[in-house]
Amino acid sequence: MAAISKIATGNGHGENSAYFDGWKAYEANPFHPVDRPDGVIQMGLAENQLCFDFIEKWLMEHPEASLCTAEGVNKFKEAALFQDYHGLPEFRQSKIRSEWIVMSGGATGAHEILAFCLADPGEAFLVPTPYYPEFDRDLKWRTGVELVPVVCESANDFKITIDALEAAYEKAQESKLQVKGLLITNPSNPLGTFMDKDTLKNIISFINKNNVHLIGDDIYTATVFTEPEFVSISEIIEQVECNRDLIHIVYSLSKDMGFPGFRIGIVYSYNNAVMNCARKMSSFGLVSSQTQHLIASMLSDDNFVDEFIDEMKQRLLKRHKYFTWRLEQIGIGSLKSNAGLFIWMDLCKLLKEKTFEAEMELWRVIIDDVKLSLSRRMDDFSMSPSILSPQSPLVRART
Ligand SMILES: Cc1ncc(COP(=O)(O)O)c(C=O)c1O
After folding, report:
1. Quick one: angle between helices 106-118 and 272-281, nearest 10?
2. Residue 255 appears among annotated catalytic residues
3. 218 C-alpha to center of ligand 1: Å?
4. CA distance 187 to 32
5. Which DSSP symbol is given to 282?
6. What is the Cα–Cα distance from 392 to 383, expressed in whole angstroms?
7. Domains of the chain listed by start with CATH number
8. Which Gene Ontology molecular-function terms are recorded (predicted)?
């Protein structure tokens, strides 16, 4: 057989890693209350399914938003012929569009575009732990960039400290890795917490001092369901001195609206050169004009958006309260959180011993016997067992 590329034959995608084992177990035997009562329940996926009744009602009331209805068909030809990576004019005019925005295939596409624009192969981004495991695929696989963990400890609720940032920066330098940026997810997947103003200010001062970029993944912004109020990086840079060329935001409608299948992502950057390149790269993963048309109509309906977000927050809060209360009743603690689609559970006392091997064994029992697919801490980043804190390991599950 003729040889094919290293990327095609290698395991950079990570599909053969333990992270995907839970997914595979679920796919092989998905739970169904009648047909497969002994099937696996998928709780390791961050899906927001709480408000589809709201969306479906809006769709019924707005047939003109779809191009495949009598009311919408007059826009069909225009949309079918549309090919411009700046996006449909009505999408540009809706809430999430301005000239500083480039569209991408979900946040996944946005992250890869930024990795390509900001770093060369072999250069690195710092990422606070624990982090969304697929960053290893999204940022590294095709770009050749590296991720260096900023080790955050459960002992102080995984707060990102200047010391932790400096330590990771030094470690990267010792490994001869050129650090090009810091990637933060706020609110955090998998913790369900968000950063306070001081932490964000520290982060801004760190990136300015070291002249490295900041990628802010904001895709869980609307899922904050209780006080205090969420503050985003774009608000903080209005308040402190900052070189805005270093700031880049990733957003998508996969979590806040619950539309991962529509692949609606954006890069929002203050840096002209980055935007210029990102715009050219976006042609590899554009959002279909049909989807743009539908979403632009939906997001232009201010009443709907406000009601949807209010209702979603209430339903998330209710689910979160119930879930953590039931966990407490059976003696399982969880990290205090007020955002996202996760619960960070402490299953420490179920371990035979505090090692990664024991954690893996427990996780296997949870999949094979309890039939729950959860994400494990150990998958979330590369760390040595020696830094396991007494709280570890913690496992997250979808609410
Ligand atoms: C923090 C984070 N970033 C990015 C993504 C990918 O999102 P998308 O479906 O928009 O590509 C996810 C999905 O779970 C996520 O949790």
Report:
1. 130
2. yes
3. 10
4. 32
5. G
6. 12
7. 6-50+304-398 (3.90.1150.10), 83-300 (3.40.640.10)
8. 1-aminocyclopropane-1-carboxylate synthase activity; pyridoxal phosphate binding; transaminase activity
* Ligand 1 pocket: which of 108, 114, 136 to mutate (most atoms within 8 A of CB): 108
Which ligand 1 atom sits nearest the alpha carbon of residue 264?
10
d(CA 360, CA 21): 11
Instruction: From first to last of the 399 residues of the chain, give the pLDDT tens digit.
Output: 799 999 999 888 877 776 778 888 999 999 999 999 999 998 888 899 999 999 999 999 999 999 999 999 999 998 888 877 667 777 666 555 466 789 999 999 999 999 999 999 999 999 999 999 899 999 999 999 999 999 998 888 899 999 999 999 999 999 999 999 999 999 999 999 999 999 999 999 999 999 999 999 999 999 999 989 899 999 999 999 999 999 999 999 999 999 999 999 999 999 999 999 999 999 999 899 999 999 999 999 999 999 999 999 999 999 999 999 999 999 999 999 999 998 998 888 888 888 888 888 888 899 999 999 888 765 443 333 333 333 334 454 444
The question of whether 264 is a catalytic residue gets the answer: no
Strand partners, 128: 150
Annotation marks residue 217 as catalytic = yes
Residue at token pair 């009602």: 57
270 is catalytic: no
Phi and psi angles of residue 392, each rounded to the nearest 5 degrees, phi first: -80, 160
Selecting among 136, 138, 217, 218, the annotated active-site residue is 217
- CA 207 to chain CA mean position, Å: 21
